[in-house]
């Protein structure tokens, strides 16, 4: 039996109902909701037209759906972070971003090259798989903004804070790495374009994204919480649509001005949060975004499951398996653990933080975005990235609940 036309409405309704029930049902078990949705998607693949739902057949749809999901997640995690930004307060975040992430990318690219990949392809795989995911990591991230009281940084859950702040920032900072791979494939051997990449794609666009995010977040924060005219004071009127308007508006402005939109959205959320940290309007904004994120995430996981059933992993070979498995099980944990030495985190906290380098929707977006420049290798690239995401969903989904409970027990003692 094939499902098409009006039957898809039935599938969509059943998926939303499943999404409402599964998180509560699985809360006590070592099985995350993403695992369940992925499995349902694989079963669904036997009843729908799999060819039309493949990311290779629909790269633009895949790109924009993943893009929107990441944007909603970035605004949500930015609003959820209680800790004010600062060099010392965010020490673990900077270690993960500027030490662990480059080291992990270099290790993955080197492994790919040693296994026989062309340098540009190896670099693309490393760049695409670089960002930790803000979408699928809700079980190990901060749960939402704390309002009504002042929260001291020392009171935060350091593991959840590290994973949340890292995911918020490195989704934008993966863009220069993807551009580097694209330039290596399209512009040839290293040459004059490397200086252009450093000056513009690495530094220039990052500065523009941060500046737009900070400026827009400050302006909208002033308007929402302390505008002279009550009609502009959205915090008083309880309009959670501000979160979505801000997400899309800031991203659009940053992209129009050639900055990194992902980075701008996360910085804007942090800035808005800082304008009036104790106001409970932040909880409403976060809750509204969380619902949108859940719906989009369920859709992506279902489609990924359908694609897996439809043959997405058929081009996978030992090279792809080695890259994905080594990244999830060895390279990310090792590089992150080394980067977190001599911090205030306990040994168990360092290991848990290092282990949860979740790969997910960000990797899907970046491959859909850059894949057109790697047409010959595209099936293999999708198979490798798809395998890595599925492996991450399963491994991290099973490990999240017991490991976080273990940390909570140790803190209690």
Automatic annotation (TrEMBL):
The name this protein goes by in its record: Sodium/proton antiporter (CPA1 family)
Compartment(s) of residence: Cell membrane
PANTHER family: CNH1P (PTHR32507:SF8), NA(+)/H(+) ANTIPORTER 1 (PTHR32507)
Keywords assigned by UniProt, alphabetized: Antiport, Cell membrane, Ion transport, Membrane, Transmembrane, Transmembrane helix, Transport
Keyword match Metal-binding: no
InterPro entries: Cation/H_exchanger_TM (IPR006153), Na+/solute_symporter_sf (IPR038770)
Keyword Transmembrane belongs to the record: yes
GO molecular function term, any single one: antiporter activity
Predominant place of localization: membrane
Bilayer topology term: Multi-pass membrane protein
GO cellular component: plasma membrane
Segments traversing the membrane: 6-22, 29-48, 68-85, 97-130, 173-195, 202-221, 241-274, 295-313, 319-339, 351-369, 381-404
Sequence ranges assigned to domain Cation/H+ exchanger transmembrane in this UniProt record: 17-405
Secretion signal span: none
The organism's place on the tree of life at top rank: Bacteria
A GO BP entry: proton transmembrane transport
């Amino acid at each position: 039996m094939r499902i098409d036309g009006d039957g898809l409405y039935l599938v969509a309704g059943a998926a939303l109902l499943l999404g409402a029930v599964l998180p509560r049902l699985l809360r006590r078990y070592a099985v995350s909701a993403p695992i369940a949705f992925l499995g349902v998607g694989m079963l669904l693949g036997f009843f729908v037209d799999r060819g039309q739902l493949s990311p290779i057949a629909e790269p633009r749809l895949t790109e924009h759906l993943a893009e929107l999901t990441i944007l909603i997640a970035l605004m949500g995690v930015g609003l959820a972070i209680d800790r004010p930004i600062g060099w010392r307060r965010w020490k673990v975040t900077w270690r993960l971003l500027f030490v662990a992430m480059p080291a992990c990318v270099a290790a993955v690219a080197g492994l790919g090259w040693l296994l026989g990949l062309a340098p540009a392809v190896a670099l693309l795989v490393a760049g695409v798989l670089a960002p930790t995911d803000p979408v699928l990591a809700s079980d190990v991230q901060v749960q939402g903004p704390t309002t009504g009281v002042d929260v001291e940084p020392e009171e935060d859950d350091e593991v959840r804070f590290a994973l949340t702040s890292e995911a918020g920032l490195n989704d934008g900072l993966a863009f220069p790495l993807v551009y580097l791979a694209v330039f290596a494939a399209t512009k040839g051997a290293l040459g004059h374009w490397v200086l252009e990449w450093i000056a513009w794609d690495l530094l220039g666009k990052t500065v523009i994204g941060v500046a737009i995010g900070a400026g827009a977040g400050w302006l909208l924060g002033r308007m929402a919480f302390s505008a002279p005219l009550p009609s502009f004071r959205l915090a008083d009127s309880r309009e959670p649509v501000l979160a979505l308007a801000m997400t899309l508006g800031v991203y659009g402005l940053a992209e129009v001005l050639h900055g990194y939109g992902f980075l701008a959205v996360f910085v804007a959320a942090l800035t808005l949060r800082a304008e009036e940290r104790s106001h409970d309007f932040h909880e409403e904004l976060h809750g509204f975004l969380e619902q949108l994120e859940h719906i989009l995430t369920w859709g992506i996981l279902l489609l990924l499951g359908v694609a897996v059933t439809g043959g997405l992993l058929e081009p996978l070979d030992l090279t792809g398996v080695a890259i994905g498995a080594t990244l999830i099980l060895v390279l990310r944990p090792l590089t992150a653990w080394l980067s977190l030495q001599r911090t205030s985190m306990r040994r168990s906290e360092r290991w848990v933080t290092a282990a949860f380098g979740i790969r997910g929707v960000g990797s899907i977006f970046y491959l859909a975005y850059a894949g057109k420049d790697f047409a010959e290798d595209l099936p293999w690239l999708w198979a490798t990235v798809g395998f890595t995401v599925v492996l991450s969903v399963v491994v991290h989904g099973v490990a999240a609940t017991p490991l976080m409970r273990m940390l909570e027990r140790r803190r209690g003692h």
